[in-house]
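Fig. S4 source data, part A: sequence.
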Amino acid sequence: MQLFYSPGIISEYYRLTPEESTHCIRVLRKKRGDTIQLTDGRGNLYTAELLDDSLKGCEVKVIHIEKEYGKRPYTLHLAVAPTKNIDRYEWLLEKATEIGVDIITPLECEHSERRTVKKERSEKVITSAVKQSLKAYHPICEELTPFHSFISREWKDAQLFIAHCEKEADKILLSRAARPNGNYVVLIGPEGDFSLKEIEEAHRRGFKDISLGESRLRTETAGVMATAMLYILNSI
């Protein structure tokens, strides 16, 4: 199955963007009468018939809709400090999307080595991963957010966790600390880790210390590990 991301689809007829049309017609060699799959990123998987082969915007007709395609029994909000090497951060965006994440927030922390992130670029990386992994849900990518502002939000019915490297903390492995079928918020710090002040503030806001294993992980690896642990926990 080849999936096309079509967030603007709202009716029976829809036109693909010029970029998607070119990929559909020239690369995949689709022709009139063929069927393709589209998603609006909100859980709907559309099967549509190709009505024409215009590279400027080929028209399709929706013939079937599958709602809540691939819906998971939990939600994950991953808040992570972007790495100095942007390629590593984008790798995290890609892999977290493939495994299963709902919201990704880049955090600006005291020890952050990167304090700018291009949201438009992040969106493109996530969209590509959505299409590649055949997801009908498109993760939300937020703007770079200061740590204090993020943890000061209201977290209704959420299980709150923070991963850090301080040895004195009494940490529980995330897969044991989390309860299945929940709404999770997980904080992953920068290469220099969260500051003690940030960790203490997170504790006051209800975030619990968690471990992601015995190894000291890179930021992007920690993000993927947390995402995978929660996926496996909710798949058993």
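Fig. S4 source data, part B ends here. The helical segments are 18-27, 86-99, 119-132, 147-151, 174-177, 196-204, 219-233.
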